[in-house]
Sequence to fold (328 residues):
Amino acid sequence: MTILENHEADISVLWHAVGGSRTECQDQLLELTCGLPIAVLLVGPTGFVTPNALIDDICGLLDDNRVACLSMLGDEPLERCVLIVLSRVPLTIADVSSPAIIPDWFPVGGGEVHNVRIYDALLEARVGLLAPEAHVSEISWQLASIEGALVRRYRLSYEHSKVSAATLLEDLRNDRSADKNTGVAEFIEKFERNQLTIRQPNAYRPSLSATDSLLAQIWRLAQDSSSESLRKPAKRLAVALEFPEDLDVPDPPLTVVLRRSPFTEPHRGIVFAQHLMAAIRDSCQLTTAAAHSDQYPSYPVALLNSVSTDLLRYLQTAQDRVESTQSL
Fold:
């Protein structure tokens, strides 16, 4: 079992801060770990604050839960075990190791000095890309929603200035022979028809090669551009959708910051377009990878949750800018 394979200390303490009922969580974990050298314990509000007191805290935890430990682990000698500790507060001394004299009644090294290590479950737990913590369905829904906002804005831009709207035309055609004579109006109509076909927004995942999806077109343009060259199609997108020069640019998600090359751009509409294209690329990549999650490793819950909620936060804010910002 992974929880044992990943923790090699004689006694590993896995700390989990529970927001709801700890007894219900304990019952569920006991059912899942039945027959394994794992004990699930409840800890009080004191202790486990400083590394220097770790030995006393561990021994106190074991003595306070002697009956529970023997009930879950048995009284036969064991080489190692894991203690899952359920608390109401987060751990402040994660990933600390210390030798401790184990109480003589304990099945792992009773009366002996053994290495004890404490971990934060939030940082240790790993899940696949389809786990609820990845928020894939929420991101898919938001992608469908922001695509609708972009298509509506493109329609308004075209009605306001056909010249501006045509700035993106060659990017949309992408040297495809089937689209070499397609005009801006035809592309917008294709995008609008595609919007009507979306029946389950929370499962929306456009194909990178789709020509009738504005979102897919933006994804392709971002995918085909390096961090340095993304500014050019971003500028054309900003002009085509009439993003103003003084647009209030929301903070980009971390995934965009990590891949962004430094540049100075006074036109805030272009900056917004660049961030938006990169965020759409990263969000589409996440939903696509999640659809093939069996081909990818698992990731820490905290990391996956933070990255996905950051993307979701940006898409929601970006849609508000698309819908509320006045055209040029």
Remarks:
- The two ends are 59 Å apart (CA to CA).
- Residues 2-124 form one domain.
- The CA atoms of residues 137 and 202 lie 5 Å apart.
